[in-house]
Amino acid sequence: MIRRLLIGVLLVTACTPARRADAPLPPQDPTRMSHARHRQIPCNGCHRSSKRPGAEDHKPCDDGACHKKEFLGTPGLFCLVCHERVTTLPLAAPLKDYPTRDAWQALPPVFSHKQHMDASRMENRVGFHVACADCHTRDGQKVRPDHTTCSRCHAAEVGLPTRVPRMEDCAGCHQGAARLRTRARVILGDLQFEHERHLTDRKGVPIRCEDCHRASVASTSYDDHPAPRVENCVNCHDDGARTPYAMRMRVCATCHRERHQTLTTIAPRSHLTATERPIDHTLAFRRDHAAAAERETQRCAACHAMMSGNPRQACDECHKTMQPADHRITWRELDHGPEAAASRDRCATCHVVEFCSACHSQRPRSHGLPSSFVDGHGFFARRNPRACLTCHGQTFCLDCHTAASARRIR
């Protein structure tokens, strides 16, 4: 019993897939100001205006007893909370970005695009419809919405209903824990994008925010508000009437700083229009595509399974109407038997089991008339008995040969 139990444990252990270690979280900047250590201070004790805390000669950090020691002492690590480096020269200590744009976002706000883009709801609350440019544009430039932007509607003098958070109600919008920023919302690496160049197309026709940010209208939180998909870019960038040829999606330098177009470059399916073929789909590819299809089935499925709006159907469009090259006029009578015996998997690619049964249930042409084949079948049976077993069982021969032997004995 114990032996069986050990064998079972070993089998389960051997069949259990190896657990992959989770990717470690990016480290937090140890010099960032900790909101948890300042929780006893009201939010408006530090955030007194739309400017960053400390912008007015280090106030409010040095106007009380909190950090008096650090400001009167020798510059040290405390300075790195706001400055890029420690120095005794004020002009040589540039400030860090604010808000910080590292991997972590402290006290992220709760925001619903769906509520703020509801025209009738906003009309009843603030007296006007909220458009994308109301929050994301200032002085003709794209900006990140900040407290100044929100105060247009959430200031106390607007008189919003009591259940709607006001500017002094920090906890009404900001969560109490940090969260990871997603790469999709922060353009990093060799990618480059400028909103200022996407205000109008080459004809001067305005490009609406909704043309790219299609999910914003229905988004209720940051989790369901994805960045624009690359497929949205294709509609304009491969339209010569809207975008210059040098800015087509095939030209990698359109978006990538460190990548360049070459003769062998194959753009991903998401970078191509629905009716455009990859660069390797030449006239000879139809003849040679079998090896590529066996090697890269997922790549084929990206276009040939209606996954990207392609009007062409899957492989069956051709393979159900065109026979393989070796299916010649002699294929049925002479060639298909040895080929089927050597590689049944190849037949199963197109034919189901019932297909074979439908033909093999009919009398073969080689059998001729029933009366004549009985006398001459021995020659065929001795030459290739396996062909007989295709239709006849092993006991089929005994039904006749046993009766004949019995007659001879008598």
Please indicate the percent range of residues in DSSP E strands (runs of 2 or more): under 5%
Radius of gyration: 37 Å
Count the DSSP helices: 18
The residue fraction in helices comes out at 25-40%
- Rounded to the nearest angstrom, the distance between the terminal CA atoms is 62 Å
SS class: mainly alpha
Described by strand count, sense and barrel closure, the largest sheet is: 2 strands, antiparallel
Provide the residue-averaged pLDDT.
77
Q: Give me the side-by-side strand order of the main sheet.
A: 1-4
Total beta-strand segments: 4
**Secondary-structure element string:** HHHEHHHEEHEHHHHHHHHHHH
Low-confidence parts: 12-19, 306-312
Shape: elongated
Describe this protein's structure.
With 410 residues, the protein is mainly α. Among the domains are: 39 residues, no CATH class; 77 residues, no CATH class; 71 residues, no CATH class; 35 residues, no CATH class. Helices cover 34% and strands 2% of the residues. The strands form two sheets. It has a two-stranded antiparallel sheet. The chain has a two-stranded antiparallel ribbon with strand order 2-3. A hairpin with a 2-residue loop joins strand 2 and strand 3. It is elongated and about 120 Å long. The two termini are 62 Å apart. 2% of the residues are buried. About 4% of the residues have low confidence.
